[in-house]
Amino acid sequence: MKKSKLMLIVGVFGFTFHSFGQVELPEIEVTAVNYKYLNSANFKEEAEPVRRLQLEAAAFDLQNSEFYQDEYDYYYVSFFIPEGKILASYDKEGNLLRTAEKFKNVNLPKEVRDSVAERFPQWTISEDVYLVNYHEEKGITKRYKLLLENGNKRMRIKIDENGVIK
Fold it and tell me: Which residues contact 47 (CB under 8 A, 6 or more apart)?
């Protein structure tokens, strides 16, 4: 009997203290930062290293960075990973204005691989460089520089994202 009363008292106090222990957290506001860039870059279809760095550039919080000062109108920020780099230009509100991107040896889109295989059937792609240029008003351009090999022969070609060889 004493044990059940003791358990009842402990249960009541435990519930009481638990209800006082709840803390209200402040509201969190999630905003889409530089969504135009991610949409035009066709973010979901990019290779993993490209997506990772593009997301960093799009989500970069300029106004809370250590080098932000109100007196400048434009900021240039570089993002690096072993597979590539992005040079991004922001206005003083933190909007992404343009980028210059370069990635090495990423997974090529099917259109590019198929186009190269059709036009150069005996050649293999030994190296590739993926170049992306984004401009807020003009949109995005993507192109690839490929090094093809066939035995001792080497050839460099340029190709766009749709497989059109230039």
Answer: 103, 106, 107, 130
Per-residue pLDDT reduced to its tens digit, 39-62: 887 777 888 999 999 999 999 988
pTM, full prediction: 0.76
Contact (Cβ atoms closer than 8 angstroms) between residue 116 and residue 123: yes
SS3 content of the chain, % helix, strand, coil (to 5): 30, 35, 35
The secondary element (H helix, E strand) that includes residue 14 is helix 2-20
Whether the pLDDT of residue 17 is over 70: the answer is no
Which two three-digit tokens encode residue 137?
A: 């008003």
The C-alpha atoms of residue 154 and residue 124 are separated, in whole angstroms, by 10
Structure tokens at 140: 């995005």
* 49: three-class secondary structure by DSSP: helix
Name 95's bridge partners. none
- For residue 124, the 8-state DSSP code is E
